Amino acid sequence: MKSREKVIIVGGGPVGLLCALNLATHDVPVLVLEAYSELFMDLRAGSFHPPTLEVMEPLGLTAKLLEIGIPVHKWQLRDREKGVIGTFELSLLGDETPFPFRLHLEQHRFTPIVLEQLRKIPHAEVRFSCRVEDVAQTGSGVRVSVQTPDGLEEFEGGWVIGADGGGSIVRKSAGIEFDGFTFPERFALISTTYDLGQHGFTDTAYISHPVEWCAVFRLPDQGPPGLWRFLYGCDPNESEQEALSEAVIQQRLQSVQPKPTPYEIVHRTIYRVHQRVATTFRNGRILIAGDAAHLNNPIGGFGLNCGLQDAMNLTDKLIRVIRETVSDDLLDRYVRQRRTANIEYVQESSIRNKRLLEETDESIRLSRLDDMRRASQDPSLAKAVLMRSSMIDSMRRANTII
């Protein structure tokens, strides 16, 4: 294996593993370095949009996901007092994509599928318990310093892809700034076995309220009816312990759908939420993707999808640079395409979604809800909403950039 051909990928999450699989499938040797001792069980992401299913289909991943995920054919916008504002049918996208639905599946059930395929490829190596401490560019490639169970080691390759999350050491080593802000409130993610579908909730529903807004969505479990997840913003003045207490959680869930007995809670977690975009996604032979390159709030399910779309866009181009000796200027197009898509669509849409749900000015709130009600009742307007919320518009915009 020539070190100048090998791509070192920092981060064994969904973005890093997908980068590795696409490269290795096209005969590019890869080394994945993951700090954790095993695949990380991240509960946050769980929705795959149509363009993501499209770009992963050639690798055989989409067919496997469809076997175990939940296709979501419509979603609702609700208001706590006024009930259902509008229902948006994704079948309106039938002439735009072969996958006119969202697919609900947790990312921790996605990563083992990718890893299993990756381990079948001789020139793909995945090493756990390897914490990267520094990345440096050399005259002809890159050198990565890694703390392993056996001590400090160095690995050399032709390129490094940082898919190591918001605190990316790869991005920091490359001197790339990460502009943006952090929301004052933390987000709680609560899972329950109680079936909201019996109360008319679609498998994805957004509930508007000036203080206690919420999003709910259904994910696969060991069997029907699956797990229902509640996502909501916590009181900034609450401690983490208070926010995740049984009393507070029960109050928040009961306010969405009252029931005579307490909700059975399966998972509970709380985390900080950011809106940030790196000033560039490339510095020479160092590239970044996914959360290492951009972060956004989770309303709309854009984060994982944008990262996976990054992974395929970047590696499709890197394959050409390595295997076809195309100029590495092609990688600058990756930066232009994916950074633009993130700024113009993902950042703007995720912030707008949050504002729609939490608006405190009653006149503005009612006006926005009326706009969404009218859109849901007009197929052409509804399709425009769905083209944007399903990330078809952002993907097409990115692909037009030279």
Structural write-up:
The chain is α+β, with helices and mostly antiparallel strands. The protein has 2 domains: 230 residues, 3-Layer(bba) Sandwich (FAD/NAD(P)-binding domain); 73 residues, no CATH class. The chain is 36% helix and 26% strand. It contains 12 helices and 22 strands. Helix 1 packs parallel to helix 8. It is globular and about 65 Å long. The chain starts with 6 loop residues before the first strand and ends with a helix.
Condensed summary:
Helix content is 36%, strand content 26%. It is globular and about 65 Å long.
CATH superfamily descriptor of the largest domain: FAD/NAD(P)-binding domain
Count every beta strand, where a strand is a DSSP E run of 2 or more residues: 22
Name the CATH class of the largest domain: Alpha Beta
User: Could you tell me how far the N terminus lies from the C terminus, measured between alpha carbons in angstroms?
Assistant: 33 Å
Morphology: globular
List segments where confidence is low: pLDDT < 50 over at least 5 consecutive residues: none
**Structure classification:** alpha+beta
CATH topology of the largest domain: FAD/NAD(P)-binding domain
Counting H and I runs of at least 4 residues, what is the number of helices?
12
Indicate how many domains the architecture comprises: 2
CATH architecture group name of the largest domain: 3-Layer(bba) Sandwich
**Over the alpha carbons, how many angstroms does the gyration radius reach?**
21 Å
Amount of beta strand: 25-35%
